[in-house]
């Protein structure tokens, strides 16, 4: 038969282990919920043969803990077809794949009045930002609380808090 002191000790050990387990699960879940607001300039050039695509823009990207987000793109596009203004918002759903890898799926594209980029231009030069397309992104936190958002090969945005 167990003594009262031994029972209390075992009960205390069980309670402590349960608290540690619940805390670990809670911290893990908090880690996988993104809550990011990031703004920056995006300047890029894509050359394909004799065709050059140049984008000079302001980008604002938002990830919310409920698995949704959006990015706003405002700026200028230069292609062999001409110079265009871009002003659009693309809504997306995101989900964590593993570690720092996330999948985003574009679910909504809203073009604003100034946006006069012809259909197909972005699809031709920037794969993966059209409606219903999916894209893998890597999101890493730096030791000084910065955030690096990019693809598998290079960063696209570097944000600081």
Output the keywords.
161 residues; alpha+beta; 2 domains; eight-stranded antiparallel beta sheet; 2 helices
Write a compact overview of the structure shown.
The chain has 161 residues and is α+β, with helices and mostly antiparallel strands. The chain has helices at 4-31, 121-125, and strands at 36-48, 51-63, 68-79, 82-98, 101-111, 134-141, 147-150, 155-159.
Please describe the topology of this protein:
Elements lengths: L3 H28 L4 E13 L2 E13 L4 E12 L2 E17 L2 E11 L9 H5 L8 E8 L5 E4 L4 E5 L2
Antiparallel strand pairs: 1-2, 2-3, 3-4, 4-5, 5-6, 6-7, 7-8
DSSP helical segment count: 2
Query: Mean of the pLDDT scores?
Result: 83
> Which structural class should the secondary elements be placed in?
alpha+beta
Q: How many beta strands in the DSSP annotation? A: 8
Intertermini distance: 59 Å
The global form is elongated
Task: Please trace the helix and strand order, writing H or E for each element.
Answer: HEEEEEHEEE
What Rg do the Cα atoms give?
Answer: 23 Å
Report the uncertain regions.
none
Largest sheet: 8 strands, antiparallel
**Count of folded domains:** 2
Q: Give the percentage of residues in beta strands.
A: over 45%
Q: Residue share in helices?
A: 10-25%
Order of strands in the sheet with the most strands? Answer: 1-2-3-4-5-6-7-8
